[in-house]
Amino acid sequence: MSNHTPSQTAHRLAAHGKNRAPENREISHVRESRVKQRIERSTMNHRYVKGSAVAIGACTWALAASLTAPAVVFAAPTNLAQGKPVTVSRDASGKNTTTKLTDDDKTKGSRWSAEQNVPQWAIIDLEESKTFDTFEITWESATEHAVDFQIFVSDSNKEDGWGEAKRAVTGNKDAVSTIKLEKPVTGRYVKLLVTKVSKYPNVSACDFTIMNSADDDGSQQTQDPAANVALKMTGVSDSKEADTLGPNNLFDGKVDKRESRWSSASASESA
Hints:
Blueprint: H1 6-15, H2 22-40, H3 58-65, E1 72-74, E2 86-88, E3 112-113, E4 120-139, E5 146-154, E6 167-169, E7 176-197, E8 204-211, E9 220-222, H4 267-270
Antiparallel strand pairs: 1-9, 2-4, 3-8, 4-7, 4-8, 5-6, 5-7
Helix pairs in contact: 1-2
């Protein structure tokens, strides 16, 4: 994370335009103005932060190196699934194992992979009966995700004890699936059943978050201004140059690794 203030960052970005040819300075000036405006107005209370580039150049990569969210944030509901044990239909060998589904790390480097075609399932044991109404599933990527899946809740974890699905999703196209039930449910076990995937014949998910929205009382927490609250968050972009250069690299905390960056597709590729 950069130690520069917003104003210093904007001036550093502007410096990239000083040595350009005269005909390019006007574009650099516009870019500097837009970048400075976005940085200095970033201290707001919102969940999502959107950035855009008005021209392609060095300052685009400077912004892409590290993106930090506001210093004052709303308290988020507790992730009831964090650190809880998981049972799956099939576990991958190597690093993409079961525990990655509840480690609260939403990056592609930490994920559960069944390494086998559908149907596949995962059961989270909350270790005691809990009340909740919101699920957030972070799939591997915008191209590798579940299309059809169901969520079940039970107190018994028996084959005949699941009943009907609390939510059945069909035709999902998102890298992150957020499901909010109309009414809270109570149970100890939560089952995710995937019956169709988008591309590669394999179920792969980075994180499964379970929350009770009633825990969100709207209170504010004072955030350490030196802390990057965007660290390990999930990013979405309109394009990427390659699978390894996706938007999640913006939030991995690595500011000195060229291979860990978001790079958009060229104009011809994204058109």
